[in-house]
Specification:
Layout (H helix, E strand, L loop, with lengths): L1 H16 L3 E3 L11 E3 L1 H19 L5 E3 L8 H7 L1 H4 L1 E6 L6 E3 H27 L5 H7 L1 H22 L3 H10 L16 E4 L3 E4 L7 E4 L5 H5 L2 H7 L6 E10 L14 E11 L4 H17 L8 E5 L9 E9 L2 E12 L1 H10 L5 E3 L4 E3 L2 E8 H12 E5 L5 E5 L10 E5 L6 H12 L5 E3 L5 H11 L3 E5 L1 H6 L1 E6 L5 E5 H12 L1 H8 L1
Parallel strand pairs: 3-9, 19-20, 19-21
Antiparallel strand pairs: 1-2, 4-5, 4-6, 7-8, 9-10, 10-16, 11-12, 12-13, 13-16, 14-15, 17-18, 21-22, 22-23
Helix pairs in contact: 2-13, 2-18, 3-12, 5-7, 5-8, 7-8
Length: 514
């Protein structure tokens, strides 16, 4: 675990050094849990968003997009339940003065029991080799059975406390499990209490006439209050979906792990409207569809898993997270939720407006049910960055840091490098740049040795380097170097566009999905 934490620190450092992510307001000593995306980061982020948007709106003819405002009428948040119930259970350690989410502390304790079970299994597998029967071992080994019983009991107790919103019981679990503060190492805890996560501000020209408004904590409500506008103007028939990418804001008290949990973040959400009674069929469909979208990136199928929710929101009848293995464990990157008709019914009730859908096949009006897919752009960015980062030892004692980014997401698709800064090579290289730049993000670099330039491009994840040398002037061929293998091939300048496009276009990713 310590080794993984060291790797994560290196990734955070690499993200700053190579223009991916900067601390916000850094020259003023920063603003906690707020980050800026640098020149390479914004390109990677935009490519992730484009991949999601195109997968939703191009591949599904019944999904369209909107862009709703960040400021919304405050009654919307009353209707959605955010004013009364958008809370985290927080607990303080009196010695370290650090604040934690009580549920996260307990989830980490459960994960530690899982680690103990996995270690016992790994030791036994090493001892018994191919003859090892994991299921039999887990059923018969007393130590493993003890861990399993402990885990199941703790898990049930935690689930019951969360569903009952029993803050006293959450604290009692922390005491009984002897959970210590990671900083002070003590168990000197305060009571658990709720904290609302919405940012408030005021809208209006005078203090007396100002209206309290909120920065939206999610983008979904902007879709719900517009669903009938979209349905009518787009002549949409159920089932249909509305997609949106936008900023959301949460006053996270326990904001940590770099850009994994931030106060200002970006979401990619799609709300899929269906007939009542068909929601669980569509829930399964979107579970499979969304996992396929993730796996198409080639980051490693074994790095993903589903995690069904222990505590369902009172309005939901199914909820699953897609978790990705970060250096700090499996963490949620996307949620798929069956929200029933709660949101639309609430907005109908609070607004006093009828927002039902008329179904021409059934010849009746009703409030549709909704399946939601919600993915954090920043978490997706972090999962791509973490899984792509590698420190490689090369022959001859050399080493390199390389980002094995999916080619279609890479900030820079190709770099054109003149071997030397003379003999007409820079001019020839510029010609190639000027031809490729209309279709690909293309870098030109002539500073330092060719080896150092290759390393710079490796570090930002550029899939292809094109080297212009003296032979280029004779036969119009260049050396095309591949980032991952470092292999080089001689290709004609005239073929560059076709070769690169076949490997870096979003088109190739999207075709895997259809």
């Amino acid at each position: 675990m310590a080794q993984q934490e060291d790797v994560f620190k290196k990734i955070v450092s690499h993200a700053k050094e190579y223009g991916f992510v900067f601390q916000s307001s850094e020259i003023y000593d920063g603003l906690a849990a707020v980050y800026d995306y640098g020149q390479n980061g914004v390109e990677l982020k935009n490519n992730i968003k484009r991949y999601w948007w195109d997968a939703m709106t191009l591949l599904h003819e019944n999904i369209v997009g909107i862009d709703s405002a960040i400021f919304m009428h405050p009654t919307i948040w009353k209707a959605s339940g955010h004013v009364d119930a958008f809370n985290d259970p927080l607990i303080d350690n009196r010695d370290s003065k650090k604040r934690y989410r009580a549920d996260v502390l307990i989830e980490e304790a459960i994960a530690k029991i899982d680690d103990k079970i996995n270690k016992e299994v790994a030791k036994a597998r090493k001892r018994f080799g191919e003859a090892f029967d994991e299921a039999m071992f887990c059923e018969t080994n007393p130590r493993v059975q003890e861990h399993i019983k402990h885990r199941e009991a703790l898990h049930q107790r935690f689930s019951d406390a969360m569903n009952a919103n029993d803050l006293d019981e959450l604290k009692q679990i922390i005491i009984d499990e002897e959970i210590v503060c990671p900083i002070s190492g003590t168990r000197n805890w305060t009571d658990v209490r709720q904290f609302n996560l919405m940012f408030k501000t005021e809208m209006g020209s005078t203090a007396d006439g100002a209206m309290t408004v909120y920065l939206r904590p999610e983008t979904a409500q902007g879709i719900f209050v517009n669903y009938l506008n979209v349905q009518k103007t787009g002549r949409m028939r159920l089932p249909f979906g509305i997609a949106q990418i936008g900023k959301a804001f949460r006053n996270e008290i326990v904001a940590r792990q770099f850009i994994f949990r931030m106060r200002e973040f970006e979401q990619m959400e799609m709300q899929f409207f269906v007939r009542p009674g068909e929601e669980l069929k569509w829930f399964e469909f979107w579970k499979q569809t969304r996992l396929r979208w993730h796996k198409a990136l080639g980051l490693g199928d074994d790095k993903y898993r589903y995690h069904d929710h222990e505590k369902l929101a009172h309005y939901a009848n199914a909820a699953t997270d897609i978790e990705f293995e970060m250096p700090f464990g499996f963490k949620e990157v996307e949620g798929i939720h069956s929200r029933t008709n709660f949101d639309l019914s609430q907005h109908e009730k609070f607004s006093g407006k009828k927002i039902q859908y008329f179904d021409p096949e059934l010849n009746e009006s009703y409030v549709p049910y909704v399946i939601e897919t919600s993915i954090g752009v920043d978490r997706m960015f972090l999962s791509v960055l973490c899984s792509s980062y590698e420190e490689q030892q090369l022959e001859g004692g050399e080493s390199r840091v390389v980002l094995h980014l999916p080619d279609a997401l890479a900030p820079v698709k190709c770099a054109v490098l003149p071997l030397v800064r003379k003999d007409g090579l820079p001019e020839k290289a510029r010609e190639i740049v000027n031809d490729l730049k209309f279709d690909f993000a293309t870098h030109y670099d002539e500073k330092d040795s060719i080896g150092k330039r290759y390393r710079r491009q490796d570090a930002i994840g550029t899939p292809y380097c094109i080297t212009v040398d003296h032979q280029t002037l004779e036969d119009n061929t260049v050396t095309l170097r591949h980032r991952d293998s470092m292999e080089q091939e001689r290709v004609a300048i005239a073929d560059l566009h076709k070769i690169i496009h076949g490997r870096v276009s979003l088109n190739s990713l999207l075709r895997k999905l259809s």
